[in-house]
């Protein structure tokens, strides 16, 4: 393996602290939730934040296509499929409220005509894996309880898909494995499929592409 010629911490604009945490210098723009359909110029997809585990500072942002509010029926046949989304960011950056993540989830809800739940999971290195996998399962169990009125009234839990990009796809994959092992305890949730965008997978032994791209200018190995 060739010597590193790129400082990944400088590239990602993060500073490694002595206590094992990192300081994220890059301040990414956030977008607030928009839950009120009565506001002027309210979007076609509404969104709201719901606490998951306050002790872990985890939460979910729920996206609901506005047209669902016009349907007074609560039968399962009239409900929308459910997509649970896990954002990318190398396990260390971004948030469910980051504008890029928010816009993607909002557009997914609009184009798929689905209820989308975007999960704010704990980030590494402060919270190393499997913390994010555990947060993913916490989110599924929270959805299962259907205490939120949007989930209870408009989401078909029997038509659930797990979605993620890059690191988020890794989380979706491992959440899918755990959900399969806990299928009975998750009922009435039924995982119908995984939607994985450029999934990130790695192991103890470096793959050929990892060795070849060790100093990649966009995403070098840390």
TrEMBL record:
Domain Alpha/beta hydrolase fold-3: residue ranges: 83-207
Q: Where does the UniProt annotation place the signal sequence?
A: none
Which keywords describe this protein according to UniProt?
A: Hydrolase
Q: Which Pfam families has this protein been placed in? A: Abhydrolase_3
In its UniProt record, a GO molecular function of this protein is: hydrolase activity
Entry similarity comment: Belongs to the 'GDXG' lipolytic enzyme family.
Q: What is this protein called?
A: Alpha/beta hydrolase fold
Q: Which organism is it from?
A: Trema orientale (Charcoal tree)
